[in-house]
Amino acid sequence: MSQQPPGNIDSGVVLDGSYLAASPTPAEAVALAPRGAARASAIRGHEPVIIGTVTVLLFFVVWQGIGLLRDRSPDGLALGPFLFVPPSQLFLPAPLDIAKAFQAYVQDGRIWKDVAVSGQELAIGYVAAAILGIILGLLVGWYARLRYALDPFITFLYATPRIVLLPLFIIWFGIAGVRNLDANLVKVARSFGASDFQLFRTIALPGSVPFILTGLRLGIGHALTGVVVGELVAAQFGVGQMMAVAGATFQSSKVFAGLFLIAGAGMLMTFTLQRLEQRFQAWRPKPN
Predict the structure, then answer these.
(1) What is the C-alpha separation between 130 and 216, in angstroms, rounded?
(2) First vs last Cα of the chain: how many Å apart?
(3) Fewest CB atoms within 10 A around its CB: which of 56, 122, 150, 190?
């Protein structure tokens, strides 16, 4: 006769002289859960960052590999019936070439003047557009008659090519924020005798914050584009002006260095505003 394990006599069965344990209770299953499950959950929580980082690294590895292949086999590499000819350095410099160009740009010392000029232009234009856009957007979104009066002009500006009036685009998200407020909150506040200023301060402004932040985030790319295009047209200093001169003199590596500098600044600003958006996400009005 096989020996039963200690404890509950119904916790298992005897089959062919061997003992088979029954399924554990839910409490036992939680206690016996492997620690790897918690680790797997933590990894899944960071999947966007992990996958994004690995993808970017692979992209740069492949890009640099094309550069190495170009140095070793400038006439191309036969891949079966196909011949792969890597693009010339003029059209596609390798990441290491761009890094060397950026190092020379820093050592030259002009980078600090260019960054200061472009940063000043970005700050003045972006902050001025944000203040004007937020104030005008809140007023137009709150007062319907004012919105009726200005809608034709807003539509006209919206139809205008973006490159001409990029900073004004922040206005749109201020309007959307106020017009998406919870109407029930406004009705309840009015029923208690709240004034327009009190409604604006306690309901309209807090409820519009998430939309304002979204507008500010989406306006970063347009603001940077405006800075670069403005410097391409007429400027003595600035990252955009440097890129224009480098492109005209076929210094592709230097153009890419300026491109990564601008893109890096845009990514940093966008990430900062994304974190602020997440912090104020609870303020966003919920759909009825």
Answers:
(1) 7
(2) 68
(3) 56
CA-CA distance, 258 to 264, in Å (whole number)? 10
Q: Which of 217, 238, 236, 213 is nearest to 228 (CA)?
A: 238
Nearest Cα residue to 265 out of 216, 230, 219, 220: 220
Per DSSP, which regions of 135-216 are E strands? none
Please tell me the distance from the alpha carbon of residue 224 to that of residue 240, in angstroms, as a whole number. 10
CATH architecture for residues 95-283: Orthogonal Bundle (1.10)
Q: Please, is 147 exposed, middle or buried when counting C-beta atoms within 10 Å of its C-beta (0-12, 13-18, 19+)? A: middle
Q: What's the rounded Cα separation, in Å, for the pair 4 and 14?
A: 8
Nearest C-alpha neighbor of 246 from the set 98, 122, 119: 98
Domain(s) of CATH 1.10.3720.10: residues in the chain: 95-283
**33/25 Cα distance (integer angstroms):** 12
Give strand ranges (E) for 69-168: 77-79, 82-84
Tokens representing 66 are 């094309």
Reduced to 3 states, what is the DSSP secondary structure of residue 258? helix
In angstroms, the Cα distances linking 155 to 150, 169, 226 are: 9, 11, 21
pLDDT at 261: 92
- 52 CB neighbour count, 10 Å cutoff: 10
For 17: left if phi > 0, alpha if psi spans -120 to 50, otherwise beta; the answer is left
- In residues, how long is the chain? 288
